Amino acid sequence: MLKPSPNILRLGIPKGSLENATVDLFAKAGWRISINDRSYFPSIDDPTIEVVLFRAQEMSRYVEENVIDVGLTGSDWIKENKSDVHEVAELVYSKATSRPARWVLAVPQESAVKGPEDLRDGVIATELVNVTRQYFLQRNIPVRVEFSWGATEVKARLLDAIVDITETGSSIRANNLRIIDTLLTSTTRLIANHKAWQEPVKREKIENIALLLQGAINAREKIGLKLNAPKEKLEAVLKILPAEKSPTISALADGSWIAVEVIIEEKLEREIIPLLKRAGATGLISYPLNKVIT
Q1: pLDDT > 90? residue 7
Q2: Which residues contact 22 (CB under 8 A, 6 or more apart)?
């Protein structure tokens, strides 16, 4: 395992909060990854790929050092580690939402601190030490930044402030904290080792993975919609459909009817299906999508 090979792509999957979301994304893209709780080497139904689990925080270092060829991690950890890697694609997915994660500077609600300048000579707890130090250095605000091993929200009341990651802000609110600034917005990236990227066989495989993962992400909030309609109702039906491109229109055996197929945002389904029915459409079928390649 993990021995250099020109025909085997070594892939790093983030262990922890992104683990399940990543395995699910790969499944929709066409790869089945099975993780054994006792092993850091998951199996995959592709003999040309070997998989290993690493924490997202260290993934970019292992890609840079050619321990693995390609991996998924947040842009925050690439910046924190100052890693020299090739960013293949931005993949906007996460454990909770499709929104980017934010690293925020937060203090207790009752704190007198209004902005970063009020933290002069204070102590800040965070996992994102290098980025946080650079943030205060750029503003010429002297502070001491301490590494936090977890439960960072608790330390906001023991020290002066924290820098922590949030997607929805629910943890910040639950701990009665107040955000005073955003240091960094982060999304997941597919990154490759420079040497692997220059190898034609591995590069093609990496590009294929990027294409299909992005297609799976594109499909997450979309559905396919099929319907039949009389020809004389076609114009009215098409006015209702918010198609990305022109819908597919096919003739039926009964020459007076046509079939229409289109991809739409899932959130629009409940609004437009009743409208289509009233416009004369029939045989309406909606179905989930695994991939949308644009």
Answers
A1: no
A2: 13, 14, 72
pLDDT at 167: 85
Kindly tell me the burial class for residue 240, based on how many C-beta atoms sit within 10 Å of its own C-beta (0-12, 13-18, 19 or more).
middle
Q: Which of 2.60.40.1190, 3.40.50.410, 1.20.1050.10, 3.40.190.10 would CATH assign to domain 9-97+188-219?
A: 3.40.190.10
Sign of CA dihedral 12, 17, 23, 26: negative
Instruction: Please state, in angstroms and rounded to a whole number, the distance separating the CA atoms of residues 214 and 12.
Output: 17
Q: What is the token pair recorded at 222?
A: 């979309």
- Residue 166: closest CA among 238, 216, 96: 96
pLDDT confidence of residue 217:
93
pTM score, two decimals?
A: 0.85
> For the segment 75-120, what is each residue's pLDDT rounded down to a tens digit?
999 999 999 999 999 998 875 556 788 999 999 999 999 999 999 9
Task: Decide if domain 101-185 falls under CATH 3.30.930.10.
Answer: no
Closest to 33 (Cα-Cα) out of 244, 209, 247, 250: 209
Give the E-state strand segments of 67-194 in sequence order: 70-74, 86-91, 101-108, 123-126, 144-147, 161-166, 177-186, 188-192
When pLDDT is averaged across residues 251-275 and rounded to a whole number, the result is: 94
- The domain at 222-288 falls in which architecture? 2-Layer Sandwich (3.30)
Average pLDDT value over all residues in the chain: 93
Q: Beta 123-126 vs 161-166: how paired, if at all?
A: parallel
What does the domain layout of the chain look like in residue ranges?
9-97+188-219, 101-185, 222-288
9-97+188-219 and 101-185 agree in CATH topology: yes
